[in-house]
Automatic annotation (TrEMBL):
<feature type="domain" description="Zn(2)-C6 fungal-type">
    <location>
        <begin position="14"/>
        <end position="43"/>
    </location>
</feature>
<dbReference type="InterPro" id="IPR036864">
    <property type="entry name" value="Zn2-C6_fun-type_DNA-bd_sf"/>
</dbReference>
<keyword id="KW-0539">Nucleus</keyword>
<feature type="compositionally biased region" description="Polar residues">
    <location>
        <begin position="48"/>
        <end position="69"/>
    </location>
</feature>
<dbReference type="InterPro" id="IPR001138">
    <property type="entry name" value="Zn2Cys6_DnaBD"/>
</dbReference>
<dbReference type="Pfam" id="PF00172">
    <property type="entry name" value="Zn_clus"/>
</dbReference>
<dbReference type="InterPro" id="IPR050613">
    <property type="entry name" value="Sec_Metabolite_Reg"/>
</dbReference>
<protein>
    <submittedName>
        <fullName>ARAD1A00682p</fullName>
    </submittedName>
</protein>
<keyword id="KW-0479">Metal-binding</keyword>
<dbReference type="GO" id="GO:0006351">
    <property type="term" value="P:DNA-templated transcription"/>
</dbReference>
<dbReference type="GO" id="GO:0000981">
    <property type="term" value="F:DNA-binding transcription factor activity, RNA polymerase II-specific"/>
</dbReference>
<dbReference type="GO" id="GO:0003677">
    <property type="term" value="F:DNA binding"/>
</dbReference>
<feature type="region of interest" description="Disordered">
    <location>
        <begin position="48"/>
        <end position="72"/>
    </location>
</feature>
<dbReference type="GO" id="GO:0008270">
    <property type="term" value="F:zinc ion binding"/>
</dbReference>
<dbReference type="GO" id="GO:0005634">
    <property type="term" value="C:nucleus"/>
</dbReference>
<dbReference type="InterPro" id="IPR007219">
    <property type="entry name" value="XnlR_reg_dom"/>
</dbReference>
<dbReference type="Pfam" id="PF04082">
    <property type="entry name" value="Fungal_trans"/>
</dbReference>
Amino acid sequence: MVSQKRSRNRKIVSCIPCHQNKRKCDKKLPCTRCMRIGKTCSYEVNTRNTTEQDSTTSPSDDSGNQYSDGNKGYLVMGESGRSKYISGGFWNQYTSVTTRLPTQDAPKSWGTLFFDLSVRVTNSVDTKVFLTSFIPPRDHGLFLLDRYEQAVYPFVPMVSPEWIRERYIKDCLETTQVDVDCCFFSLLYAICYASAATFDEDDKLPAFMPSSLRSLRQAYLVACEHSILAGGFPQDPTIGDLRACVLVQSCLVHEPSRLAPVTPVAIKVAQTMGFHRDGTNYSLPPDVTESRRRLWWQLVFLDQIEAVNRDMLTSIREDEFDTRLPQEEGFMMDTLRERYSAMIVQGQVMGALYGIRPPSPGAVDNLMKEIERVRKRAERFVKLHPEGKTDFERYSIKKMLMVPDKINLLMVPYFLKIGYYQGAESLVDTGLRYANTLCDLYRTPEFKPFAWFVRSCPPYHAVSLLIIVLHQNPYHEKADQLRQAIDDTFKYCRPQGGVGWDALDDMRERLLKENQQLEGIDWKEWEFLFPSANLELFEPNSVGINDI
């Protein structure tokens, strides 16, 4: 019997750069080797448009542009920014049923139960007339759009400032607004809210702007909520509605909002729309692919921020998506790619340390090596951009150097979990440096437009570590610096994080009371803040890492 040589599936075995260089690949996206050396990681994908249909599939005429990726699923691109993703397997036999998309906005109040709105929201003329009442006047609107381009878009580059400004002038100032779809309203009001959120109450604004920023933000927030629901979110969402949700969530300050818990919902909505699959798998146009990548990675960023603030695992797993990093050139996109690459390592650290089963010492060593690679990448980025030309570039360079410290501080819960207090205490200098740098960024006048981004990334683990060390050793050699750093963090970077941050604030006030005495503070009272910590081992003479 003649043996037949079996061809290997390179898409499964290794990525293209590792295969070409004959290197071992861990088959992630991006893989560890490509991320370490700065290569663009990609895999061979057999793309097949569904114009060449299998005999088992017969999509309907109203299903829009349909694409397939072998057995991995179908992606249907519809009108008004709608899309639908169907995974491979059983549903491949029924794509004509499962991939139908509506041709117009939802005519009923979908989503009202989730957001608990008392007002029935529809896409009728009455609803649009109601929404047009929030459209800002020309001077007001252009001022907020300029602020969006300066302070928000560099961090959340999902909606082009030129496009939204052109649509605002054309559809809101020069024509009848009733003809505009609700998707545009949701984007416009989300951008207006985000722009207003970048100002502080003590900022001097032009005379045509309202005196109460809080009332202004709340008005745009309400308008954005109603616009999103009128478009059919979350049952029948458009990409504009999803962008509006992500933008509001990225800039949300302290206003009570029904959009506050929307990140997990937005993640699932994005997955049903296929954003977790890269557009190159389906031969989508480059501009469409790039816009989908930006939105998905901003969701990954929000997911990790919420997970860090709550000391929990992320909702998005690394092996559940293959959407690549944005590929456009320029300093802004280089900064985003570096931030997102660091997020991949941060997700690996959180997945290993926050799980039910503690990682092995070998796994911890590998994580420390990954963190060291992140530090080297950050230093290499700073060497390539030694001096920023604009305030944003100078701010980004300083922020980039903080990324390794941020990931290092994620090790604190692990050290507490195994009772290695000395390991946590060894990161005191890191926590001090991270907290003080954040406060310095907030206090620097030229960085004031970016202060909202400082608040959106609160130093939860840094503050937790400083409070723990100060509680364990009130006469620490750096006790004064610890107290000052804790106080400054809550003064300048007052974060919103729910019960955890409120409890930390309460502990801070008690730590800074008269004579700075700690009598009467029961550590068990704060046990819920650090659910993974083994508090019984919180002794100065506890075991070391090598004794575990």
